[in-house]
Request: fold
Amino acid sequence: MNTGDQITIYSTEPIKNLPNGAVNEDASLIFPSDPIVLHKKTKSPALHSDLFRYALLSQTDEIWVDLDILALRSFDNAPDYFIGWEDKHTLNGAVLRLPKTSSALQALSRYGPTSHGVPPIPNLRGFRKIKYSMRARFTRYTVDQWTWGALGPLGLTYHMQETEEDKFALPISAFYHVPLHQTHLFALDDAIKISEIPDNAWALHLWGSRLRKILLEDYDGRLPSKCFVNKFAYENILEPPA
Reply:
């Protein structure tokens, strides 16, 4: 759906042919991008994205939105704490706004490429706590070596719970009505209907990495014509193909 919201796309290099309503800004003005901070084990730039979004929220009044988010309505009236539960235990920052006065945001903004020590993992106890404590004590255990998501959902959940700001989080239905393990539904014909999406939903997370993998493995990399994503786009954003 064309919500009318202005979208700013941050990048390390200029992007051409942006859609109407989108503007391009230099990501380095918000957070240094040379070099890109990669997760050592997976080589994923998601770690850099996590650090960037906390810097963005600290320096601007913008709302961070992952590229695999499908907005269902305008974010103009979004609350100051615009963050949702992914499941009963974990918050997700795919859509994220926190007030600058947020203690959780201030803690998250202090992390950087050279941060090291014990990663912020919720409910870290027992053998796992000993393991991470030993690594931090005897090695320079830096953020790029931390467990996957330590500065993403895990770190976000940890600090929001530490400051008791998790009470402001929106329910699962706000952004994650379709959970990760049901990503395949986005590609199935008529598997998801707009009428069945909760009224309090702001957007849907399409779980882009998982969806791309499903499309490559089962659909030759193309969205089926009657799947939810295609139908939603054609009915609400794009002109249908001739």
